[in-house]
């Protein structure tokens, strides 16, 4: 599918480079960057280079690229830590106001979890 784009969308502007972001990784179909208001150090957003508000609005080719990209970032975080059990993290993906979605462009949160005692990621 041809990439849908919304000129008023903040994440479309980030993909275009019109709004600066801390880029983590980019592929043909996806763009990953640090969340501007992280709930944990390393809080990353992975988004499709396609403007769709909710998961079910995405063409499969964009959806299919999201998990491998997320996996690659989680792996990189995993090798960067020195805790005994490797990294812990949550993947969160909100759809609609009632589900706490604020930005209407599909995004997957990758949120590292730290050990409360050691502070390790
Ligand atoms: P939602 O609640 O829609 O799932 O999450 C939207 C996320 O986008 C929030 O965690 C928020 O901090 C992040 N965010 C909103 N605007 C920007 C921005 O301009 N730049 C970056 N890097 N993150 C943003
Ligand atoms: Zn968009």
From TrEMBL:
Short sequence motif named Histidine triad motif, residue ranges: 105-109
Domain HIT: 10-120
Gene Ontology molecular-function annotations: adenosine 5'-monophosphoramidase activity
GO annotation terms (biological process): nucleotide metabolic process
Active site: 107
Protein name (record): HIT domain-containing protein
Organism listed in the record: Henningerozyma blattae (strain ATCC 34711 / CBS 6284 / DSM 70876 / NBRC 10599 / NRRL Y-10934 / UCD 77-7) (Yeast)
Protein encoded by which gene: TBLA0C04830
């Amino acid at each position: 599918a041809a990439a849908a784009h919304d000129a008023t969308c903040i994440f479309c502007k980030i993909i275009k480079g019109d709004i600066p972001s801390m880029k983590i990784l980019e592929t043909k179909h996806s763009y990953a960057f640090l969340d501007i208001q992280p709930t944990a150090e390393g809080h990353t957003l992975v988004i499709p280079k396609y403007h769709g508000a909710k998961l079910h609005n995405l063409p499969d080719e964009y959806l299919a690229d999201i998990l491998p990209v997320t996996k690659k970032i989680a792996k990189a975080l995993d090798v960067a830590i020195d805790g005994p059990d490797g990294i812990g993290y949550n993947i969160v993906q909100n759809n609609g106001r009632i589900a706490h979605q604020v930005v209407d462009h599909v995004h997957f949160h990758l949120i590292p979890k730290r050990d409360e005692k050691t502070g390790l990621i």
